[in-house]
Design goal:
Blueprint: H1 2-23, E1 24-27, E2 31-37, E3 40-46, E4 49-52, E5 58-64, E6 68-78, E7 84-95, H2 98-103, H3 108-126, H4 129-134, H5 136-151, E8 156-167, H6 170-212, H7 214-229, H8 242-252, H9 286-290
Antiparallel strand pairs: 1-4, 2-3, 2-5, 6-7, 7-8
Helix pairs in contact: 3-5, 6-7
């Protein structure tokens, strides 16, 4: 009799141990336990620690409440300005309602992943290339709202969505590189021109100050010589004064021609000669005598009397020629 009681007690203890082992569950700190009794949801969600379920009657499903980091596969799309891009992202979410995550959706991870991919393609089609490259904060917020709207009914909360990388075609990269280079060159030229303008203004002020004091130019020349000699060079560069070059240039220029003005000359007195015929003398014209400053023509010498032609009468008082 005692032996049978001992056997029954051992059997009961063994059955209790087996039942306890089958019913015991441990829920971790970052998990929550959802109990389904005969397929029906129990209202109480088991917290972290040790808990018991009815073996064969209740089923405990553990739901992770940690923040999940899920990469979104790269999606190919065409932007609003007709540029083909490839964009990938990453999404951060967590479960806030364990019962809804078990009951409302079959696999909340897969559902969130698919929703993130479709939302990312939609964002690509609605945005320009410049927005994808420079205005990502606004796109991230829009993408988060698009994913969070259906995820609320699944007991999932979207914490953050980030666009990681935007891949462009090689032709577009080269075009953007040329554009950036041209913009940088334009800014460099503008800055250089501004510097030249400011330097020219300062040089003009310095020149005006030096022109007031001629010794300042000589002091500046000596300072330049000292600055060149401080480099310990074997060659000494001596600046040549510009004023000396200008002096030599003026000295080499020919003098301008002076206008020639002839002084009026008085006529020479006529030489004593034999009286000439009135017709042989030349009288000065009224115009030449009246014009001052002009050279008057000299009076012509009286011509010798020509021999009388044959058949003409000899003048009275002349002796006949003797014939031999």
């Amino acid at each position: 009799m005692v032996q049978e009681l001992l056997i029954a007690a051992v059997a009961a203890v063994s059955a209790g141990a087996v039942y306890t082992a089958a019913a015991a569950r441990v829920v971790k700190q970052y998990e929550r336990g959802v109990v389904l009794r005969l397929g029906r949801l129990r209202n109480d969600v088991r917290g972290p620690g040790f808990t018991m379920v009815l073996p064969g009657v209740e089923r405990l499903r553990k739901v992770n409440m940690q923040i999940v980091t899920m990469p979104v596969p790269a999606q190919d799309g065409i932007t609003r300005d007709n540029v083909t891009v490839r964009v990938d992202a990453v999404i951060y979410f967590k479960v806030v309602d364990a019962a809804s995550a078990v009951v409302e959706v079959e696999d909340y991870r897969f559902a969130v992943s698919q929703m993130a991919q479709t939302s990312l393609r939609s964002i690509i089609g609605k945005s320009d290339l410049d927005d994808l490259l420079s205005n990502r904060e606004k796109l991230n917020q829009g993408l988060e709202l698009m994913i969070d709207s259906p995820a609320v009914g699944w007991g999932v909360q979207i914490d953050r969505v980030e666009i990681k990388d935007v891949s462009l075609p090689e032709t577009m990269k080269r075009s953007m590189a040329r554009q950036a280079e041209a913009d940088r060159e334009r800014r460099a030229r503008v800055i250089n021109a501004d510097a030249e303008l400011q330097a020219s203004k300062k040089l003009a002020e310095a020149a005006s100050e030096m022109s007031a004091q001629p010794a300042a130019l000589q002091l500046r020349l000596l300072q330049t010589v000292v600055a060149v000699a401080a480099e310990k060079n074997s060659t000494l560069v001596l600046p040549f004064p510009v004023e000396l070059l200008r002096f030599l240039e003026r000295a080499q220029q020919p003098a301008p021609p002076q206008p020639m003005v002839s002084a009026p000359q008085e006529p020479a007195p006529p030489a004593p000669s034999a009286p000439a015929e009135p017709s042989a003398q030349t009288e000065p014209s009224a115009s030449s005598a009246s014009a001052p400053g002009r050279l008057r023509p000299a009076p012509r010498a009286p011509s010798a009397p020509s021999a009388p032609a044959s058949g003409q009468s000899r003048p009275s008082g002349s002796k006949p020629l003797a014939r031999h």
